[in-house]
What we know:
Layout: H1 2-6, H2 30-44, H3 52-62, H4 68-90, H5 98-110
Amino acid sequence: MIGPCLGLVPKQDQSGEHDPQLHITKTGNSYLRRLLVHSAHYILGPFGEDSDLRRWGLGIAERGGKNAKKRAVVGVARKLAVLLHRLWITGEVYEPFFASCNAVKVALAGS
């Protein structure tokens, strides 16, 4: 629930069959939100290191559309906030390829 606290989720204005894509809510600490968005721009930019988070964001950006890059940046910022909160709470070490590592572990355990 860290995404809504930082205002990194889209506003909702549903009526009947309409569910339009609106801007983010921008609630919470604007400085922290700005840092996360700048970090997401770096992750998705040409100098960002390869990771599951970068691959996920680039996948969203490749879908195309008018605002695909903007949606990808906000999505990566939200996921980054959730990841940082999780690492802070549990004290775990960051794994840039978490999904890949788990797939290898499962494959090795099955052998």
